[in-house]
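Same chain as my last thread, 365 residues:
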Amino acid sequence: MAKRFQSYMIQLAKSLKRWPGRYWRKNWWHKLVTIVAIIVIVLIGAMYGIAEWYIHSQAGRPLEQGVSFVPDYAQSLGVDPQANMDALLNIGVKHFRLVSYWSDMEPQPGNYDFSQLDWEFQKAEKAHAKIILTVGLRQPRWPECHAPNWVNMNAPDSQWQPQLENFMQQVINRYKASPALESYQLENEYFLKGFGICTNFDRQRLISEYNLVKKTDPHHPIIVGRSNNAIGWPAGQPQPDEFSISIYRRVWDAGITHRYLEYPFPAWYYGFLAGFQKIFLHKNMMIGELQAEAWTPNGQSIQQTSLAEQNKSINAKRLKETFEYGRATGMRQINLWGAEYWYYRMVKLHDPSLWNVAKQEFRQN
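reply #2:
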């Protein structure tokens, strides 16, 4: 029996050795398929190798898991924003990405209201937490571009850009001395045209804003974000101190299938993006938004969507897997997207399942 098996293996090895030559002598499309297959295997192998290098190279850095927090969104869900932030601090959240909406903070020209951002900074300072402060016109949450009503966004940007930059200066000067401030995020996925109500994507405006932030506060780093899976390479100006990326894994496909769609990218794919950037641009990358809230179907609001339907997008098991997925990318700064939503499910829908997962993860970290 052993001899028969040995003979079989020898014949198989000889056949495999002759296979490439026989296959190559077939029709031209056989050759094309062979070449394409080899190229794909080599590319995936190189990508995986870069990802593994990056993941191992970052393993010694401390893990900083935080959340994006938008008081306006918490309020829209019917929860108290201050109680929401207090609860996040109580479960161990020490890193926040906060917003400075132009529409909220300069409701009339020259009339500023920083009360909301003031209490956020005060809570963070008291808890020794750290803040990434988003500045500019485009910031997280719909409609993305948060211009006040008195600004005509259909006018040339030469008319409203000076007003925007004056507002940005007011924000930066107010908070740049805070011990909680860690860095700025300039705009939010600035060149993403497929989401949000935004009309101006001029690179020169972004460069001007970058120079303004650097001049007003040269002591804190600036982050510029790239969007989830968007094709492109951040090679143009401005070149920030650090890049961020948004990762959304399970979304509702309203265009073709009308079903939930899960992107097939493994965690190491984002490790490759971060590693490739590290090699060629010498810039770190962080996860600016890691999807951790429900993506509702057909444009419904969260309040219009049943809990059973929300669970098709995210539940406790998926949230735990999301934390694990973020860490598996190798990136050591991770901001979860959906902290207001976890709190809403707990206090309004009486479902603490997501909150309990987050509490376990942040306290463990």
